[in-house]
Structure formats: structure tokens, C-alpha cells
């Protein structure tokens, strides 16, 4: 069997993609804002699910209030992170050119929509947490995993948004 070199197996499409700029366009002191801001909505989505589970087991109205505040803050923080992520997607050619970026964006926008519906349900009818709020919280947790998977793939596999100085 003949050995193949990297030059023989090079993909011209990937080579063209690698030429595009993929550093973060929305950053503070070299730290990408989108990567820094997604942690809050992620934690709050799972916090809302936990509050729903605690309410399910205890029937304590305290957990309804926790879920309301957690869902609302998850939605608002998700919108803020989504605005920054959308700016990155539209401003940076190396991000925009990758299919994984669009998969991440679609999952994230769907997640924000579900988080907004979850918060809205709680505002209108707090007693609807069981079962509808719980179902929305579970769906949001699954969507968080999907969006996070694609976001992590962009960072760790494609080096998207990394701002590495020449001395590093």
C-alpha cells in the first residue's frame, strides 16, 4: 500500500476556509464576548429545570418563584449572548463560511425561543409549570446540549473566535 502525504490528501475547500479570518470581532482585551456570555444562560436553563424538579417533588411555591426568575434571566441573558453571537456570525467571514456555525446558530435561536416561551408561560400562568413548564425546561436543556456541542466544535475543532497572539 502506498503512503500518502498531507499534500496528496489536502482538501481545496478546507484550504480555502482556513485562509479566511476566524478571530473574534466582538472582544474586550482579546477575550471574545460571545464565549464569555453564554455561560450565564446555560447555567440558568439548567437552574430552571432544577427548580421545576424541586417544585415537582416538594410542591413548595418558593420553587415557582425561583423558576420564574431563572427562566426570565436565562431568556434575557440568552438574547444578549445571541446578539453578540449573531454579530460574530455576520462580521467574521471565517465563521460565516462554516456549516457548523449555522447549525450552532439555528440551535441557539431555537433555544432562545423555547426559553422565552418558558418564561412567558410562567408569567401568564405559574401553575402551568407542571407539566408544560417542565416540558419546556427539558426541551431547553436538550437544545442547550445541542447548541453547546456545535459551539464547542467550532472552538475546539475549528479554532473559531480564538485570539492568539504571535508570541503564544
Keywords:
two-stranded antiparallel sheet, DUF2231 domain-containing protein, membrane, transmembrane, transmembrane helix, mainly alpha, DUF2231_TM, 8 helices, 168 residues
Number of strands: 2
Query: Percent helix among the residues?
Result: over 70%
Report the order of strands and helices: HHEEHHHHHH
**Cα radius of gyration in angstroms:** 20 Å
Number of discrete domains: 1
**What is the overall pLDDT average?**
88
The assigned structural class equals mainly alpha
N-to-C terminal Cα separation, in Å?
Answer: 39 Å
Shape annotation: elongated
Task: Tell me the strand order in the biggest sheet.
Answer: 1-2
Question: Biggest sheet, open or closed, and with what strands and sense?
Answer: 2 strands, antiparallel
Low confidence ranges? none
Number of helices: 8
Protein name: DUF2231 domain-containing protein
Domain DUF2231: 30-161
Organism: Peteryoungia ipomoeae
Transmembrane segments: 38-57, 69-92, 99-117, 129-149
Amino acid at each position: 500500500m502506498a503512503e500518502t502525504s498531507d499534500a496528496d490528501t489536502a482538501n481545496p475547500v478546507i484550504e480555502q476556509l482556513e485562509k479566511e479570518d476566524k478571530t473574534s470581532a466582538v472582544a474586550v482585551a482579546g477575550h471574545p464576548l460571545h464565549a464569555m456570555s453564554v455561560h450565564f444562560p446555560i447555567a440558568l436553563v439548567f437552574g430552571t429545570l432544577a427548580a421545576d424538579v424541586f417544585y415537582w417533588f416538594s410542591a413548595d411555591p418558593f420553587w415557582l418563584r425561583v423558576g420564574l426568575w431563572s427562566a426570565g434571566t436565562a431568556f434575557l441573558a440568552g438574547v444578549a449572548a445571541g446578539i453578540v453571537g449573531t454579530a460574530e456570525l455576520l462580521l467574521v467571514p471565517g465563521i460565516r463560511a462554516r456549516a457548523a456555525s449555522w447549525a450552532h446558530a439555528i440551535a441557539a435561536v431555537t433555544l432562545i425561543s423555547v426559553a422565552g416561551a418558558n418564561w412567558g408561560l410562567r408569567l401568564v400562568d405559574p401553575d402551568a409549570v407542571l407539566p408544560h413548564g417542565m416540558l419546556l425546561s427539558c426541551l431547553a436543556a436538550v437544545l442547550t446540549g445541542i447548541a453547546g456541542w456545535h459551539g464547542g466544535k467550532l472552538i475546539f475543532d475549528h479554532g473559531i473566535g480564538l485570539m492568539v497572539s504571535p508570541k503564544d
